[in-house]
Amino acid sequence: MLILAWAAGLLLAAYWFSGVEERQQNPNQKPDSVHLDNAVEVLLEPNRQGHFLVDGQINQHGVTFLVDTGASFVAVPAELAEQMGLKQGRRFMVETANGTAPGFSTRLDRLRIGDIVLHDVEAGIVPGMGGEEVLLGMSALRQLDFSSRGGELLLRQYQ
C-alpha cells in the first residue's frame, strides 16, 4: 500500500511539474482580451527565452503561434497544414534560418488570438519546418498595432 501511495504521489508530482513547464514555455495559453471603445487588445508575456508564444486558432483549429516580426507571412508547418486541410497554392522559395526551402502559398479564412480576429490572411505552407508552432509573421501583424511595453507585447486591433 505504501508503494502504491508513493507511486501515485510521484505521478501527481510529474503531472503538476509538466504543467508548470508548459506554462513557462507558453505563458499565453489562454490570452485575455480587453475591449476598448474602438479596439480589442491582447497583452502577451514572454516565455523564459524571451519569445512570445500564444495559443490561438486558424480556421477553428487550435494552434500555438510564435510571434515573428522578421517573417514576411504566417508560416505553417506542412504536417500541421495537412491536418487543418489547408490548400497548397503556387510554389515559391522561402528563406529560412537553415537556408532556402520550398513553400506553398495559401490563405487563412480566419486567424484568431483571444478576441482579435483576422480574415483572409496570406500564409505559406512550409515543408520541412520543424516544430508545431505557426510563425505569426507580418502578413497578420501588419493588420494590427503592436508594441512592446514593460517587456510584454501588446497586440491591438482597431474596429
Automatic annotation (TrEMBL):
Its EC number is 3.4.23.-. GO terms for biological process: proteolysis. PROSITE patterns: ASP_PROTEASE. Keywords: Hydrolase, Protease. SUPFAM superfamilies: Acid proteases. It holds the Pfam family gag-asp_proteas. This is TIGR02281 family clan AA aspartic protease. It comes from Pseudomonas neustonica. The lineage of its organism: Bacteria, Pseudomonadati, Pseudomonadota, Gammaproteobacteria, Pseudomonadales.
